[in-house]
Amino acid sequence: MASTAFKTYTQEHGGRVYLLFLLFLLALYQFYSVGFSAFAIVCMAPILILGVLATFQYRMFLFWVLMGINYLIQWKNFPSGIPTSLPNELLEIILLAMAIIDVKELKMERTANIMLYVLLIWCGFCTLEVLNDTCNLGINIGAWYGGARMMAFQLLYAFMVYILYITNPKILVNYLFVWSLLALFAVFWVWKQKNMGFTPAENAFLQGRGRTTHIIAGGTLIRYFSIYSDAANFGIGIASTAVAFLVFGITQKIKKLRYYFLAVGVACIWGMMPSGTRTATFCVIAGIMSYIFLSKSVRIAVPVSIVFGLLVSMLAFTDIGNGNQQIRRMRSAFDKNDASANQRTINQETMKKYLNEAPFGIGIGIGYDNVPANNKYRKLATLPPDSEYVFIWQHTGQVGLTIFLITTAIMLLGACWIVLFTLKSPSLRGIGAGFCCAFVSIQLGGYANQVLMQFPNCLIFYGGLSIVYALPYMEKEWMAYEENELAKQEERKRLRLEKKKASRV
Questions:
Q1: CA distances (Å), origin 49, targets 37, 44, 56
Q2: Nearest to 132 by CA among 347, 394, 350
Q3: 221-222 vs 215-216, strand pairing mode
């Protein structure tokens, strides 16, 4: 019926329909190649309108769009011309506004927890940092807001969006599947880079600003970065993802979930290797060790400890696999005399001398581009932090770093408390443990590299931790969902056995 109507309309209006269609395709190509323009926006208006209508009709539609954009925004093939954080922020604000408008479905009681309170403390401190004039440059609200959005406000947005939208077992499982598919795409893309080469945009990055950090060992080893901004971000992010899915898989009773999650975890472990990010090895170790503590099960803790103990021993004390450059790169993480680590120590000692006189740091949003050469803190503003924690220390001082560490520890311990003492379902406890262990893993990555607030890590891992605070509210539904799935699993098993018996007759 619809095709007949379109055919009739086409016959009546001649080539104008085809012309409009070609213009629309041209707009899509222009968006893909050069980013937004007035022409592209006008021609793509129908898609925007349909998107708005779909958003109001299906509230979760926009949440899944946010997931995809958050993961793909730093992909070198993604259209340029828009600020990296803008799509995420707009989608998060729209989602929060829609949740408030739809007050009957609003699960606001879930937000009143310790994670919200400590995030408000951190955001409050970062707001007060607008008054920080350590460099005597005057108050720069624009620069402050640009930094505070990334350092504080996006954490609060992630918490609110996840806890308000992931409200039942079905959505939770769908979320895990969407996250896994995005992670598997990232793993596939690093395989593609390794075996089929880079796109022109990726090669431009590699030969430009990424050359000194991504082409190493005399040009014989390339650190692959997949769809992430750089190799460190990819290696640590995918390692933390591996920790989450391995824990999810170990603890699931539903076989199809168990095998799938374990496969995703193993794939992510493989994907971590070509990044050449040595810290990623420690991130996996830290995440798994955290699970041993959270599992409360000797039956699980003992074999997991043995397996990972053997793997770590292999890297630290043997030469097994030294013929592979990537394994040699990972093994160098255990080298105490590593030149890169020593240079970071030297930089941090220099920073310490300046920050002793600046307890609140040089200010959020202040950097080498707005601190003049004759300023006392010019040197501090130009030193590379190389670590998210050092970056926070650099810009908010000892006071800010202390607040950040305390608030981070409190929100993590609160989530661990829920896993250990509140949840009764072993499999749901496993999901909570997976998010907690992944959070530990990414925090360790943030200690060594500036990856904690990067895309897609911030939304994925801070949002993931907020899910733990929502799990007690959906535990009853989860038990019913799991019981139903296990009944289906047993029925399929029974039918297979009957078919097998029948085939023998």
A1: 17, 9, 11
A2: 394
A3: antiparallel
Q: Which of 310, 267, 309, 266 is nearest to 289 (CA)?
A: 309
The predicted-structure confidence for 90-109, as pLDDT tens digits, reads as follows 888 888 888 877 766 677 78
Dihedral, 165, 167, 172, 175 alpha carbons, nearest 10: -10
Amino acid at 66: L
Instruction: Return d(Cα 482, Cα 477) in angstroms, integer.
Output: 9
Q: Which residues pair with 89 in a beta bridge?
A: none
Q: Which of 476, 422, 471 is nearest to 162 (CA)?
A: 471
Cβ–Cβ under 8 Å, residues 28 and 44 = yes
- Pairs from 196-203 (Cβ < 8 Å, separation ≥ 24): 199/76, 199/77, 201/76, 201/77, 202/76, 202/77
**pLDDT of residue 165 exceeding 70:** yes
Pick the more confident residue, 8 or 104: 104
- Of 228, 179, 268, give the one whose Cα is nearest residue 467: 179
Q: How far apart are CA 173 and CA 474, in angstroms?
A: 12
Give the pLDDT confidence score for residue 413 in this predicted structure: 97
SS3 499: helix
Q: How far apart are the first and last CA of the chain?
A: 52
Compute the average pLDDT of residues 110-138.
93
How many angstroms separate the Cα of 90 from the Cα of each of 35, 70, 161? Answer: 17, 12, 12
What is the pTM (predicted TM-score) of this model? Answer: 0.85
Element (H or E) spanning 215, and its range? strand 215-216
* The pLDDT of residue 9: 45
Cα–Cα distance, 103 to 113 (Å, whole number): 20
Beta bridge partners of residue 216, listed in sequence order = 221
DSSP notation for 278-340: HHHHHHHHHHHHHHHHHH--HHHHHHHHHHHHHHHHHHHH--TTTTSHHHHHHHGGG-TT-HH
The residue among 152, 97, 103 whose CA lies nearest residue 124 is: 152
Q: Tokens 């505070």 identify what position?
A: 148
How high is the pLDDT of residue 77? 64
**Which distant-in-sequence residues (6+ apart) come within 8 Å of 239 by Cβ?**
268, 269, 272, 277, 280, 281, 283, 284, 287, 441, 445
Burial 11-50 (b: 16+ CB within 10 A, else e): eeeeeeeeeeeeebeebeebbeeeeeeeebeebbeeeeee
**150 DSSP 8-state letter:** I
Q: What is the pLDDT of residues 207-255, one digit of tens each?
A: 888 888 888 877 778 899 999 989 999 999 999 999 999 999 999 999 9
Residue 34 makes CB contacts below 8 A (sequence gap 6+) with: 79, 80, 81
Instruction: Specify whether the CB–CB gap between 362 and 371 falls below 8 A.
Output: yes
